[in-house]
Amino acid sequence: MEQSADLYYIDKINNGDHAAYAFLVDKYKDMVYSIAIKILRDTDEAQDIAQDSFIKAYQQLSAFQGRSKFSTWLYTITYRTAVTRLKTNKIDTVVLGDDIDDVADHQPGQLDQLQSKQVKQLVKQAIDKLPQIDALLVTLYYINDLPIKEIEEITGLTKPNIKIKLYRARKVLERDLRFLMDNQQEGK
Amino acid sequence: MKTDKKDKFKDLLKHAADDRPAANLTAAVMKTIEADLQREIVLKTLLQKEEATGPSFSFTANVMAGIQASKPQFVYKPIIAKKVWYGIAALFMIFVALIVLPGAGQNASGDQGVAAKLVRYTYAIPPIYSVVMAVAVILMGGDYLLNRTKNKTADTLA
């Protein structure tokens, strides 16, 4: 259903209705930006890459044959563009593991005092502590519910590699967000 | 001798008690797996609470502006190339010169030359053909000039 709506707009664009592209931009801008920011970790650069990705996708739209979902195709372009920029920038990808300790030190009793916004920020911080690719995989798999097969297409990583990275990332997140998880389990 | 020793050693080892896991090993493994799955579900629920960050409000407008800028401009091409026009002009001038210049129709010996024959044949063409040709030339000329004007305007806008 979702895919057929995308194809309808793609068809309109290919027939000269360029304004129809705004629908696709609006629909996928958050996820495209999310991929870019997970890899680049800079809001301005992420914005720039997200924009470039949409323009690239538009320019290559006539080559899109609908074999995969439009979203997968678009995310692949975004991923590759972001990774290329990352390599160009030669950003040091060393992960600092100590900063999260203050999060892990919270006691379950203190959690009641945490506002919902703070919980969101703590989760975001924990994800941001992961290596870029791992953070992206967590975002795609756990937050956006994408199947492993689609993640394979987007990132070009193999299925076992994705699974290993996801498992390791999960263990790190479980450790770092232990107090939040305990509270969540108690609340059930 | 050596083989005998090896066999005896093997027999001796077979007498050792079998290594048997605890009776509840399967249950323990399954419990661990279930607990792990449960933790994964809890983590997933928690991760979905992540503070979502989106691009700026003007993002879509910026992308659409970028698309407009990246669209290839349509280049107007005249139907008749510049070189052809020069050729037509040259032929026309030669033709006029042959008609206008005195004695152009005769060569030194007084015989009628090719030019004079051409002029004679031209006069023999019914006037309607001349009118059609003149109209066609005017239309093609107009088309060429209009396209030139459009190109100049497009270049100025770009």
Chain-wise SSE layout:
The complex is a heterodimer of chains A (188) and B (158).
Chain A (H helix, E strand, L loop, with lengths): L1 H13 L6 H20 L2 H17 L10 H20 L11 H4 L3 H4 L4 H14 L2 H12 L4 H8 L3 H18 L1 H10 L1
Chain B lengths: L1 H13 L10 H23 L11 H12 L11 H19 L13 H11 L2 H31 L1
Q: In words, what does this structure look like?
A:
The complex is a heterodimer of chains A (188) and B (158). By secondary structure, chain A is mostly helical. Chain A is built from eleven helices and no strands. The model of chain A is unreliable at 94-104 (pLDDT under 50). Chain B starts with a helix and ends with a helix. Chain B has helices spanning 2-14, 25-47, 59-70, 82-100, 114-124, 127-157. By secondary structure, chain B is mainly α. Chain B is elongated, with a radius of gyration of 49 Å. In chain B, 4% of the residues are buried. Classes of the chains: A mainly alpha (188), B mainly alpha (158). The interface between A and B is medium-sized, with 39 and 28 residues.
